[in-house]
Specification:
- The protein is mostly helical and about 800 residues long.
- The chain has four domains: about 210 residues, no CATH class; about 190 residues, no CATH class; about 180 residues, no CATH class; about 170 residues, no CATH class.
- The chain has 49 helices and no strands.
- The longest helix has 16 residues.
- The protein is extended, with a radius of gyration of 35 Å.
- The N terminus and C terminus are likely disordered.
């Protein structure tokens, strides 16, 4: 099997890197013996056949595409990571077969690190992957191979040594290890599904070399565990083509349309997220996962189906034992950790650094400065910070002992400074010198020993809770806290990296550092506010050149003419009017005006210059089509340097400062999100996009400008599933469900269920878990959750009644499982 693996990798390397067939790849007796057999293969015809398949056969092309996937790369790395594989490669290289070079070429083509040995004519093709192998087999004389094998075994010491190596215990170990690799089993199952008789190849190797392989009683189909194979046996009974045809036939049904639009809506997505955040639901998911079901993969596909973000599985937190004890709680844990801290060494090193390290001296001076104390005081008087601190104390996370250590040892009043952080500058070495004094192994052992303490469990569960995460976000949004973080960062501490690790530790999103916004001077002046800024910018705009170029484009550019016609159309005006009458949009507009961001002057420029009523269309955007050139021609007329200088000169204006601070605030960001969620606004964006404007790119840049998350373009939801402009009622969702149920092989399901209960221990265990009181308790908890019930009711209101599916599962499987999907 190692020979096949290495031969396969070598062949791929030669085929993909070399421009001729199998160049010399070694020297010596063993190489000559191997070349003896290779010479029997009509390589030119074989390659021509393979290339014909690669260009014409869809199934073989799928296999080639698989070779470019991450799974294939990972599988190659796993195979190359097996010790026995390396031992065999060493044997070949030592005996004159230059396998390292071939493997390195393969790895380069595949896109993985190089292999290192120092590890501890015209004709009709048959079709399909199996057909490719069959067509190649026709070109090879097996009689020659058999006679050649016998001849070499009789005459060549090198070849006999080679065969002995293939029969060695090391080769058997390699096969055993290889068949424990999930990715290899997935690959094996995939090519077996394509019709390749892998078992026959394994039988031949067993017959010739005596290497044993696992026995697969039926064509192998890879899943993560034995249960997944049982589940897959059920899904194979479903005629997916019939169901697909039924679903497609219902896509223009008005009730189905409404239901699908709702499932693609942010409202539904938000409900799904709320349900997935329920402890009861997470317990249900973990239970099914532990029962052997690939529930994570299923929920990931559901998320993708409804256009949602990737599904994030719940964490198995603190399940070290089911029986908790009290070892002294968080206080005991902190005391035990403090007991092993080398406080005297810390003190000595601190004094040494104060005498020898200018970077460290500067850092401590900053920490002892009135400016820093002022920042710390501001943080400590913040209600949100105090609330989080109190909740942490309530959960047992009292930081007072740590605070006292820092104050007593370092002689500074620094209640919130981390014990350590790393930064790529001279200070980082000083900080790292302190951390090296800590015996992390001892502390790790202490922490692990406390993981089954009930008080520690509660504290850690709270730190992993959404409630605590929300409090952390509120604290991080405080101007005082952000000033503290910026101060520590500017003092040379890698506080951003530390907070990022804290976020990861508690299962939170990535930490976003605060921005150094508007710190051009500490003394503000009033240069005329936003109005003055806008007036100054307008004064340098080449309005007459704009007008002239506009008229030129209307005479010479069909793309620009079509664009302007769309902007002047009644359809566009209707969309604009809808946006302007939206209360949320008007609220955002008014708040922008209140902080000085009146867009009326810009609106007037567009109306007067272009002769169109276009209050909300951006002045420019870029798009990769003929229109983008026209738009870009306009922007080239703007002297961006002048405008940039004007903007910079206004950055210390107090009114401009307030306006920009508001635009960077969460309040403004939330308003933007509400406006972007409006159907009217989304229709406007889609309209401009369809008109040829790169409105998505422009809005993405606006999001980045204001420090927001990436902009997510709207789905063309109102037209999502519009196969015709006239809707009909084919029976709605109920009709769709009934039609799908009608083609389900329920009797075959029932028969297979009984067969699995009689033959598959994994399936029996799974069903027993589903029928257990523990599972029923979890299901009951989910069904009594208000958020789940709200989502269920909204789904029913949209026509998504799951009762028929529930009845199928109950009647067919004989279990009470109201929330289990019908297709596992």
């Amino acid at each position: 099997m190692k020979l096949l693996a290495i031969a396969f990798t070598a062949m791929v390397a030669f085929a993909t890197v070399e421009s001729h067939y199998l160049p010399a790849f070694g020297k010596g007796p063993l190489y000559e013996d191997i070349q003896y057999f290779i010479d029997m293969i009509p390589m030119e015809q074989v390659v021509a056949t393979v290339l014909e398949y690669a260009s014409e056969d869809a199934e073989f092309q799928q296999l080639i595409n698989y070779f470019a996937t991450a799974d294939f790369k990972s599988m190659i790395q796993e195979v190359e990571g097996i010790k026995e594989f390396h031992d065999f490669a060493d044997y070949l290289e030592t005996n004159g077969v230059y396998i390292y070079n071939s493997l390195n070429r393969l790895n380069k083509v595949v896109g993985i690190p190089p292999f290192h040995q120092t590890f501890a004519g015209e004709k009709q093709i048959t079709g399909g992957v199996k057909g490719m192998f069959e067509d190649v087999k026709k070109l090879i004389s097996y009689d020659k191979f058999i006679k050649g094998y016998v001849y070499k075994m009789r005459t060549s010491d090198a070849f006999r040594g080679f065969v002995a190596e293939l029969k060695s215990p090391g080769n058997q170990k390699f096969v055993d290890e290889l068949y424990r690799k999930n990715k290899f089993l997935h690959f094996r199952g995939m090519i077996a599904d394509k019709g390749i008789d892998v078992t026959l190849i394994e039988d031949i190797i067993y017959t010739v070399l005596g290497v044993e392989f696992p026995i697969f009683d039926m064509p192998f189909e890879y899943y993560e565990n034995p249960l997944s194979k049982d589940i897959h046996d059920f899904t194979k009974l479903i005629d997916l083509n019939k169901i697909g045809q039924i679903v497609v036939s219902y896509l223009d049904d008005d009730e189905v349309q409404k239901a699908m639009e709702y499932m693609y809506s942010e409202e539904f997505h938000q409900l799904v997220r709320q349900v997935e955040a329920l402890p009861e639901y997470q317990e249900l998911v973990i239970y099914l996962h532990d029962a052997g079901l690939d529930i994570y993969g299923l929920l990931q596909r559901v998320h993708k189906l409804f256009g949602m973000e990737d599904y994030v599985p719940p964490k198995h937190i603190f399940e070290f034992s089911q029986t908790y004890v009290n070892r002294g709680g968080v206080k005991g844990l902190v005391d035990a950790v403090i007991a092993v801290l080398p406080l005297q060494k810390f003190k000595a090193l601190f004094e040494e650094k104060m005498a020898t390290s200018p970077a460290f001296v500067t850092f401590v001076q900053k920490l002892r400065s009135p400016d820093f104390q002022k920042i710390v005081n501001a943080v400590y008087t913040s209600p949100i910070f105090l609330e989080m601190r109190q909740k942490a104390i309530d959960a047992g996370l009292n930081i007072e002992p740590v605070k006292k250590i820092i104050e007593n040892m370092l002689g500074i009043h620094l209640p919130t400074v981390p014990l350590y952080a790393f930064y790529e500058n001279p200070l980082s070495k000083d900080i790292h010198d302190f951390t090296k004094l800590i015996d992390l192994n001892k502390i790790g052992q202490i922490v692990v020993s406390y993981l089954d303490d009930d008080e520690v469990q509660k504290a850690m569960e709270y730190m992993y809770s959404e409630e605590f995460h929300q409090l952390v976000r509120q604290v991080e949004a405080l101007p005082e806290y952000q000033e503290l973080v910026i101060y520590l960062h500017d003092a040379g501490l890698d506080i951003y990296g530390l907070l990022q690790r804290v976020h990861k530790l508690f299962g939170m999103e990535d930490y976003v550092p605060p921005k150094h916004i508007f710190e051009f001077s500490q003394t503000y002046v009033n240069r005329g506010g936003v109005k003055g800024l806008v007036d100054a910018v307008i004064a340098v705009l080449p309005l007459q050149k704009f007008k002239a170029l506009f008229e030129e484009k209307l005479s010479t550019s069909p793309a620009f003419i079509a664009f302007v016609q769309k902007l002047r159309s009644p359809d566009f005006q209707k969309i604009v009017n809808a946006v302007y009458t939206s209360p949320i949009f008007l609220e955002m507009r008014q708040k922008a005006i209140d902080v000085g961001l009146n867009i009326e002057p810009v609106k007037k420029i567009i109306e007067n210059l272009l002769g169109i009523h276009l209050p909300t269309v951006p002045l420019y955007a870029f798009y990769e089509n003929p229109l983008s050139k026209d738009i870009h021609d306009f922007t080239k007329l703007i002297d961006l340097n002048k405008i940039g200088q004007i903007v910079v000169s206004y950055l210390d204006d107090d009114e401009v400062q307030k306006a920009m601070e508001y635009m960077y605030s969460e309040e403004f960001h939330q308003l933007v999100r509400q406006v972007e969620a409006l159907p009217e606004y989304q229709e406007l964006v889609i309209y401009l996009h369809d008109a040829g404007l790169d409105i998505y790119g422009l809005l993405q840049r606006v999001h980045k400008l204001f420090g927001m998350e990436d902009y997510v373009p709207p789905n063309h939801n109102p037209r999502l599933f519009w196969f015709s402009e006239t809707y009909v009622n084919r029976g709605g969702v109920k009709g769709l469900v009934d039609a799908v149920i009608a083609v389900l092989p329920l009797q075959k399901f029932k028969a297979l269920f009984e067969e699995k209960m009689a033959t598959s221990p994994a399936f029996v265990t799974f069903v027993q878990k589903l029928r257990s009181p523990d599972f029923q308790k979890i299901v009951n908890a989910v069904y009594t959750s208000p958020i789940f019930l709200e989502m269920r009711q909204k789904a029913i209101d949209a026509g998504l009644n799951i009762e028929p599916v529930k009845k199928i599962i109950e009647n067919m499987l004989g279990i009470h499982l109201p929330t289990v999907p019908a297709f596992f």
